[in-house]
Amino acid sequence: MTRVLLTGFAPFEGESLNPSWQAVRAAAAEPPAGIEASAIELPCVYGASIAVLRAAIEEVRPEIVVCVGQAGGRPDITVERLAVNVDDARIPDASGAEPIDEAIVPGGPAAYFSTLPIKACVAAVRAAGLPASVSNTAGTFVCNHVFYGLAHLIATELPGVRGGFVHVPYTPEQVVDRSQPSLPSEAVTRALHEIALTSARTRTDIRVAGGATH
Amino acid sequence: MTRVLLTGFAPFEGESLNPSWQAVRAAAAEPPAGIEASAIELPCVYGASIAVLRAAIEEVRPEIVVCVGQAGGRPDITVERLAVNVDDARIPDASGAEPIDEAIVPGGPAAYFSTLPIKACVAAVRAAGLPASVSNTAGTFVCNHVFYGLAHLIATELPGVRGGFVHVPYTPEQVVDRSQPSLPSEAVTRALHEIALTSARTRTDIRVAGGATH
Amino acid sequence: MTRVLLTGFAPFEGESLNPSWQAVRAAAAEPPAGIEASAIELPCVYGASIAVLRAAIEEVRPEIVVCVGQAGGRPDITVERLAVNVDDARIPDASGAEPIDEAIVPGGPAAYFSTLPIKACVAAVRAAGLPASVSNTAGTFVCNHVFYGLAHLIATELPGVRGGFVHVPYTPEQVVDRSQPSLPSEAVTRALHEIALTSARTRTDIRVAGGATH
Amino acid sequence: MTRVLLTGFAPFEGESLNPSWQAVRAAAAEPPAGIEASAIELPCVYGASIAVLRAAIEEVRPEIVVCVGQAGGRPDITVERLAVNVDDARIPDASGAEPIDEAIVPGGPAAYFSTLPIKACVAAVRAAGLPASVSNTAGTFVCNHVFYGLAHLIATELPGVRGGFVHVPYTPEQVVDRSQPSLPSEAVTRALHEIALTSARTRTDIRVAGGATH
Fold it and tell me: By its UniProt entry, which PROSITE patterns does this protein fall under (chains A, B, C, D) (predicted)?
């Protein structure tokens, strides 16, 4: 058994749901064989989100942490490569905070790579018939904030843990009148199962191209 | 009971499946209460597609005809407003034909409006939690060709029949590595049920805005 | 000399300028050799726009009419193929009118084809180093309204006149902070010169593919 | 006088020109007052591109280095925030190399921030009437490779130099038949002048939001 902690976010920017939490809750409720899954919902708030994540990690003691967030407008499941040490967003977080170009961890490295096998995760999701790709930016809002916080925690205090971030599209319900790409929650749940299983099984990532020219 | 004929297309442009036929077949196999559904697959060929459609209409004697095709790249179910009297495509059809600016029916009107209640259909699909919108162009390839052929048949020979065209997105399986929008076949099947039911029940379309500035 | 009437629109939807009028005014101020050009600005209002167009045509007595409008979000110069007999938009016009699914000309045909050589115009703009394509929908707002009004006037009263519609992108000034495609006004002006010249010279359109699969 | 080194790239991926080199050459040929500009063309080759850049820096001894590359598909001038320590692309470079997930500098930090005032540069380009934004990923191809190489050189050997990377759209000539966004070379040249001037004048970046939710 591999202990996996999955995190999703509370809704933000006027949405009534957040597809990340929907899928995370469902994925943890019926985990695949060999996975012992826990799910927590993080507030869409700088600072507090990392505090809640840290508390959950201390309680659950996971071997793998997969944080999940909504990337409205992206058509596929995107496995993030890099967390960057900056908060800077075009909208306020759920507490009203609007930091500009502030370090998440003052003095911390500019960025951390995901410690999940991102290429293997993408390949597994695709093999399950769902669209996926590597993303080279998780943005500079609370998703990236949590991702950087997790990576810093792993790098400085939890060497045995591996973790990363996955962005998921809108659900169809969110965009019935918006002409935006979407994937049903069931599909995202299946993708998270593939990512959890693949992360549990894969120590060294596979070598397949997954980059971008820009 | 309302007799509804659903049509989908065979795959084209190198795809191994066509989501329109997948969804049409499934929608006809388990139709909603009150609908007697038939499904046929049309060849992706100018001319022959209309001939096969005409033969199916003569056999099935439907009250409503909903032709369905793939619109790769669109994120939602699009109910087409207008069929235009021209064949002109950037790719050959499945028989290799590449007509340029040729009339589908020489001497026919420049265009026909759909005789389905397109706004009511869009509203019904949205109410079912799926993304939908009106489209003002079905292109100038075989989808539009069949749509125009159907509309001309209705206008000139089958005044009691109503019919139109619906474009559907890629399925996730088609775009696992392409970063294109998609909807699972089950979702499209549900949307087709809503469109069949709504078309059966609605004689006069509802008045809600559904246009585009360009 | 060929007499060409160019029309642009007043700004709408909160914009401070309309790139169509900017380019039309400049194109008429220094027309290419062989072209005698007039420019008028049409109000972005259903009904009134056609009335102003009709008055200008009666005064100028053009051989060719090229109406131009803004298509925010499109990256290239698009030469419209088809005007459709319906008003239906997601936003009100400049007078506050919001018609839904109303015929522009009650009893008029569903659509008219452009009587400009659209493929030759696209080819000429491309040969001048600027991006262009055929569009199969001019929308269902005031642009399409004017296009249909012009086409109906030509079909019913002015058989010697040829005319059509061209959509142009935002200018860079309009989208400095919006990550939307744009083309400078000078480039659009050059494109309009090519379209005027090509329309004056070309009676029978060239045969090159320019359609869309959907 | 501030000495500024501008670099552009040779064409790649079958293009006959690279808009970055066009604009860089023009920008250096007639620099704005107060700027002494040099321009070099870098090969689109991992490794060699950094070697050519280093040699040019040693020769020119610039105070500011602005590397420029093509970002086909982006509609605006994008000032890059972050260089990442990885080579991983979907296409081979001009020498045929296709590294996968290889460190640019083994043992180097995961990423470097640009040392240009990126927010001030974006603001200056916008004030000049041209579209611009901050980008949070320069990709993982040769553009990012050069950007990381430059940042590493500055961090480890050239503390007095400041430098960064700017991505520019296609030019209209490149996309006449592709329906992709573009900006004329003259516009990009003006943007590069603004970026050079702003970088020369601005030691501490301005505080304005410029991030992304994902």
Answer: PYRASE_CYS, PYRASE_GLU
Contact between D119 and D198 (Cβ < 8 Å): no
Q: What are phi and psi of A178, to 5 degrees?
A: -120, 0
Confidence of residue D89 (pLDDT cuts 50, 70, 90): confident
The verdict on a CB contact (< 8 Å) between C139 and B141 is no
- Residues B67, B147: Cα–Cα separation, whole Å: 7
Smallest CA-to-CA distance from C172 within D70, D127, D170, A8 is with D127
User: Average of pLDDT values for B179-206?
Assistant: 97
Q: Are B118 and B174 in contact (CB under 8 A)?
A: no
Average pLDDT, integer, range D21-42:
98
What is the mean pLDDT of the segment spanning A170-193? 97
Residue of D176, D177, D183 to mutate when probing chain C, most C C-beta within 10 A: D176
Out of A10-14, B208-212, D62-66, which region has the weakest mean confidence (pLDDT)? Answer: A10-14
Q: How far is CA C3 from the centre of its chain?
A: 17
pLDDT digits (tens, 9 = 90+) for B32-82: 999 999 999 999 999 999 999 999 999 999 999 999 999 999 999 999 999
Matching residue, tokens 């520019």: D168
Question: A91 — contact with chain D (CB < 8 Å)?
Answer: yes
- ipTM for the predicted complex comes to 0.96
- CB contact under 8 Å between B139 and C140, yes or no, is no
Closest CA to B160 of B37, B57, B85: B57
Which of these is catalytic: C44, C67, C121, C143? Answer: C143
Q: How many CA atoms lie within 13 A of B116 on its CB side?
A: 34
Contact A211 D90 (CB under 8 A): yes
- Tokens 């490779």 correspond to D145
Tally of CB atoms within 10 A around B94: 17
- Report whether pLDDT(A15) > 90: no
Let me know if B80 is a catalytic residue: yes
d(CA A78, CA A32): 21
CA dihedral C170, C171, C176, C177 (to 10 degrees): 0
| Angle subtended at Cα D33 by Cα D31 and Cα D35, rounded to the nearest 5 degrees | 60
Q: Coil, strand or helix: which one is A53? A: helix
| Residue contact B211–C143, C-beta within 8 A | no
What number is the average pLDDT over the span D130-154?
A: 98
State both tokens at A164.
């990363």
Residue showing tokens 């100028």: C60
- Asked if the model's pLDDT at residue C123 lies above 90, the reply is yes
Q: Does C175 touch chain D (CB under 8 A)?
A: yes
- Res D115 pLDDT > 90: yes
The H or E element spanning position A41 is strand A35-42
Q: Are A9 and A67 in contact (CB under 8 A)?
A: no
In angstroms, the separation between the Cα of residue D151 and the nearest Cα of chain A is: 12
B27 close to B196: Cβ distance less than 8 angstroms: yes
- Helix A118-127 × helix A185-201 angle, to 10°: 130
Domain spanning D2-201: which superfamily?
Answer: Peptidase C15, pyroglutamyl peptidase I-like (3.40.630.20)
CB distance from D109 to chain A under 8 Å? yes
Domain coordinates of chain D in residue numbers?
A: 2-201
Closest C-alpha to B162, from B103, B210, B128, B121: B121
